[in-house]
Design goal:
This protein is mainly alpha-helical. It is built from five helices and two strands; from the N terminus they run αββαααα. The protein has a two-stranded antiparallel sheet. The radius of gyration is 16 Å and the shape is globular. The model has no long low-confidence stretch (mean pLDDT about 85).
């Protein structure tokens, strides 16, 4: 297979895999049910030697990395419960609480 045919076959396979592997647990960051779009967050960043991942909403994942540097994630915020206590994340979680699972909005850097 070459070109477009190979890419399309890969996309079909990835979609089938995603349907099978869809996590049933809620997002560990915001607590809302996961939608059709899921990203895998390394609780300790890969650059800091982390291997354990958790399924999260894309908007939650982007917010974590916009607010907290990787070194701080590895040192102080490796657990979702501690991460939720970060002032910026707590503010984000209050804001996102009533949004649907696949809600998306632009993510800005923290204040």
């Amino acid at each position: 297979m070459r070109g477009r045919v190979k890419r399309k076959a890969g996309l079909v396979e990835a979609a089938a895999r995603a349907g099978r592997d869809a996590p049933a647990d809620p997002c560990p960051i915001c607590g809302r049910p996961l939608g059709s779009k899921v990203e895998w967050h390394h609780l300790v960043p890969k650059s800091q030697g982390g291997r354990v991942t958790a399924a999260v909403h894309p908007i939650c994942h982007r917010t974590v990395h916009a607010l907290i540097p990787n070194a701080a994630l590895a040192k102080d915020f490796a657990e979702p419960a501690v991460l939720r206590d970060h002032p910026g994340m707590a503010r984000f979680i209050r804001w996102i609480a009533d949004k649907p699972p696949d809600f998306h909005a632009p993510t800005r850097r923290g204040r």
